[in-house]
Write a structure and sequence with these properties.
This protein has 351 residues and is α/β, with parallel strands linked by helices. It is 43% helix and 20% strand. The protein has 14 helices and twelve strands. α11 packs antiparallel against α12. The longest helix has 19 residues. The protein is globular and about 55 Å long. The relative contact order is 0.17.
Length: 351
Amino acid sequence: MKLNIALLAGDGIGPEVIDQAVKVSDAIAKKFNHEINWRPALTGAAAIDAVGEPYPDETHEICASSDAVLFGAIGHPKFDNDPSAKVRPEQGLLKMRKKLGLFANVRPTFTFPSLLDKSPLKRERIEGTDLVFLRELTGGIYFGEKGRREEGETAFDNCVYTRAEVQRLAKKGFELAMTRGKKLCCVDKANVLETSRLWRETVQAMEKDYPEVEVSYEFVDAVAMRLVQWPNSYDVLITENLFGDILTDEASVISGSMGLMPSASLGSDIGLFEPIHGSYPQATGLNIANPMATVLSAAMMFENFGLQEEGKAIRDAVNSALNKGIVTEDLADGGKAYGTSEVGDWLAENI
């Protein structure tokens, strides 16, 4: 198979972890006789510095004409610490999601047997956890009207959803549940929010089309509590943009490190694959960032192309590295810590 992949390294540790995913993907391509054409493009703070725009038209053209996008991270302290900045790296991410139609963020949370005791939660609470969040990505409060009034003393952010937006996300959730444990949880705040009541009634109306799926409805605050009490009670969870943003970061620590969890953002035509962590600017250039999440995002990318064996080969290599202690300092726990590039080299060689 010949694959054209847009490569958006971004900011901070993004280029370092992306380099390792490229090494691993190239090793997979060689092993399974594929050809990958990498198409680098600017985004985030790096793009603002270069052309004044966090998601330039040239970058969009490269992404839109590729088979998939492999993405690192965006963000820089100089923007985080300036509330008055008119152009921000994160605006590029939102623009990219909207223009590429990436409405479904797929965030798996699972545990690694060799790392159960590194989680902040007790082993008996997390053992066997294997859940997936589907977060709606192009609607809600992040994209609603926002502004200031009363001479800047009052601010507002509107949360708006259409039934069609809920239906297309829920459809992916039901379909995913059918391939897994056939359990679907709709996460909302229907006791308070009108948008949540739309979510709940829309999903309820769809239940009849998926009679094998057991559907539950839970308030977001209850799910936030249960995620740290009984995460293995969940299978597939669907939710709106803001709730999903918060809950998926909470769930990510279950595995023991945010540097371990991959994600995908999917639409009708193209998929974007990225680690869930941010740009971690404090670690930039130090060769200490954990590349596993980005490498596992590449595994999700191959699997999205229907290349299951290729994805499994990456996952097997990652599990082997974890079992052998070929890890960066966040997982070394007093033992030998390997550099970002050393971990990538080891994974590629073992594939």
